[in-house]
User: Which sequence fits this backbone?
């Protein structure tokens, strides 16, 4: 199962403020009453995008028409904490995001996103502040995340370096982000391991 | 140099190293529930794959099960999800503890109860509170749905090895301080993101003295501290808890127990980090904000943004207080509550209900408070009935419900309404977590929830119930 390598992601960005944005915030639990991931995109950040009583749109950045075509989400520390629900990165992917730049990520969200070919890259607080200022001043700023150079470049002179675990970077650039085939291919080793475990 | 339990379990379950550098880890035990598994079975069908070791996956339903009339979900989507898991288990040969089995419950209560959860094993589930099973000396963690697919198809996942942080709590807990307070205190100290990249080993006198159920409460909330898994080394209590349970090899128990104990961390094991905490410093702890690390002692005041040490911290306190509608700088005691919830995978076990039942006799839930008690499993419910516990709760004004996740995450009819404030024994105080986009959650121990229910406000259970003599961890 050959997968497309993910070496570069380009697009415009939107900054979502706040630390510790949890997966309940990204996709409220009531939208997980489903047996497929289809249609989750429209519910991303639902409860902060719409007033719970009036249904009127809030001033959330995703409601700002200037950012309606954004495909790179920019956030603060510990993005994606909480529940392991893959529904969270699935909803972001289906909403139209192709990458997330944040100061740090919760681990389960991170792994889930990598498996969906949505790179999650880390930048310093100062660099996040700079790119936030750039996209808010000029929403059509094109951001390019380069996973080979581990850097962000923009159309407007702002450049900075990125971090991510080497295994995730390697998985993306070499087209191994969904590991299922490689796991299956090691069937003999799996069987050997199972035999060595007393409880299996 | 010796090895930690984490290293021993990891090495004994590693199948190999993958092309991207991650380990291929064998998952000895796989637990599934109705919310995060249907898509995984869908992927399996799309790929034309079978379940490789169907005897190593165990299913139950918990998130969407109503706690009144369990078997009659009024919600057609809930009914569809229950149908899906039954069909998937039938089609692929997976053991399913359904409502009629008498063994249904929250997946993290069911695993230990059945003896499926065992020391020295790897356990995965599409649920972040899988860390609970670490109480038995297992390496247990939450996974996404694509990984549920990977486990079903291969019994393995691709995973980066974690570092290990040993958290030592030594000394004596003060009367009225519970396992829940210990973990809320740890999360407060280390932060909601402090554990990223780590497995937590909980060690020291306090965890040694805890019952298995108390250890489960602690390990359960490892993820709230950012750690994907947390564990306690297996000991005589672990062995005693498991002996005789259905999925334990009871015919050859001595050898099994010896093998389990051999996984405990060696005295000279290497740890990437060590944190030491004095048990005496831990007070009954409650949250005031929208992240589990926003904890304070019941005797402290709600933080004031004016005392923040950075602009980010100031903005974060302001956002939390605006959402929680709490007054900056004022005591947390005396804040009115609307709902009280005792249950969840954190605090829905028999010991939780026994402990609360000891103190609520002769008391009444305040008139304006809706109080619900929800056993974590059908077996816990039966144990409670045998001990007369539901009558005690009902007499005090609690609603006594059937087993499920209930109001912890509100995927079932148990939800907050509007901006109701809930004193909750669950694990997350995120915005909207309990089902209303403006609902407010204050996390605390079950005994503190009971005290809040009775007084109608957040209060110090030590005073209301005169806990000065009794110690939670005997």
Assistant:
């Amino acid at each position: 199962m050959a997968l497309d390598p993910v070496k570069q992601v380009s697009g415009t960005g939107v900054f979502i403020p706040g630390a510790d944005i949890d997966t309940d915030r990204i996709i409220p639990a009531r939208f997980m009453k489903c047996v497929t991931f289809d249609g989750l995109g429209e519910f991303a950040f639902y409860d902060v995008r719409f007033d719970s009583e009036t249904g009127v749109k809030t001033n959330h950045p995703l409601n700002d028409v200037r950012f309606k075509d954004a495909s790179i989400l920019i956030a603060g520390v510990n993005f994606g904490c909480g529940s392991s629900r893959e529904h969270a990165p699935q909803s972001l992917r289906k909403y139209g995001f192709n990458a997330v730049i944040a100061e740090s990520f919760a681990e389960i969200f991170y792994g889930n996103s990598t498996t969906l070919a949505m790179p999650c890259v880390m930048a310093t607080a100062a660099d996040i502040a700079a790119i936030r200022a750039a996209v808010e001043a000029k929403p059509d700023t094109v951001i390019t995340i380069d996973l080979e150079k581990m850097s962000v470049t923009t159309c407007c002179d702002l450049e900075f370096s990125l971090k991510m675990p080497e295994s995730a970077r390697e998985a993306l650039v070499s087209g191994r982000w969904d590991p299922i085939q490689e796991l299956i291919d090691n069937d003999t080793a799996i069987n050997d391991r199972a035999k060595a475990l007393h409880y299996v | 140099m010796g090895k930690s339990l984490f290293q021993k379990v990891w090495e004994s379950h590693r199948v190999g190293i993958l092309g991207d550098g991650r380990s291929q880890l064998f998952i000895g035990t796989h637990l599934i529930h109705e919310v995060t598994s249907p898509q995984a079975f869908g992927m399996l069908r799309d790929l034309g794959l079978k379940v490789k070791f169907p005897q190593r996956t165990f299913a139950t339903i918990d998130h969407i099960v109503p706690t009144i009339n369990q078997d009659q979900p009024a919600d057609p989507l809930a009914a569809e999800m229950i149908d899906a898991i039954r069909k998937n288990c039938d089609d692929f040969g997976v053991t399913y503890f359904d409502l009629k089995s008498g063994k249904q419950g929250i997946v993290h209560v069911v695993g230990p109860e059945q003896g499926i959860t065992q020391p020295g094993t790897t356990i995965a589930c599409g649920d972040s509170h899988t860390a609970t099973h670490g109480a038995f000396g297992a390496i247990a963690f939450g996974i996404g749905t694509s990984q549920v697919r990977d486990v079903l198809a291969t019994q393995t996942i691709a995973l980066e090895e974690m570092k290990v942080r040993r958290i030592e709590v030594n000394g004596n807990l003060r009367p009225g301080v519970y396992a829940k307070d210990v973990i809320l205190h740890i999360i407060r100290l280390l932060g909601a993101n402090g554990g990223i990249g780590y497995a937590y080993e909980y060690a020291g006198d306090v965890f040694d003295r805890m019952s298995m159920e108390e250890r489960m409460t602690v390990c359960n909330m490892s993820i709230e501290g950012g750690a994907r898994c947390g564990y306690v080394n297996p000991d005589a209590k672990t062995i005693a808890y498991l002996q005789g349970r259905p999925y334990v090899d009871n015919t050859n128990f001595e050898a099994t127990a010896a093998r389990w104990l051999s996984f405990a961390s060696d005295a000279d094991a290497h740890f990437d980090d060590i944190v030491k905490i004095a048990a005496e410093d831990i007070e009954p702890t409650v949250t005031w904000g929208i992240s589990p690390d926003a904890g304070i002692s019941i005797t402290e005041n709600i933080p004031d943004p004016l005392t923040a040490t950075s602009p980010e911290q100031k903005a974060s306190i302001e956002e939390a207080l605006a959402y929680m509608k709490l007054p900056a700088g004022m005591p947390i005691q005396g804040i009115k509550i609307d709902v009280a919830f005792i249950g969840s995978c954190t605090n829905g076990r028999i010991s939780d209900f026994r402990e609360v039942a000891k103190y609520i006799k002769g008391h009444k839930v305040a008139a304006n408070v809706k109080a619900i008690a929800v056993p974590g499993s059908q077996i816990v419910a039966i144990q409670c009935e045998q001990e007369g516990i539901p009558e005690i709760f009902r007499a005090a004004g609690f609603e006594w419900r059937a087993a499920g996740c209930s109001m912890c995450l509100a995927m079932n009819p148990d939800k907050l309404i509007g901006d109701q404030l809930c004193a909750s024994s669950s694990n997350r105080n995120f915005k909207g977590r309990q089902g209303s986009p403006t609902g407010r959650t204050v996390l605390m121990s079950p005994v503190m929830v009971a005290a809040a229910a009775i007084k109608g406000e957040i209060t110090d259970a030590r005073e209301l119930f005169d806990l000065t003599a009794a110690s939670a961890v005997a």
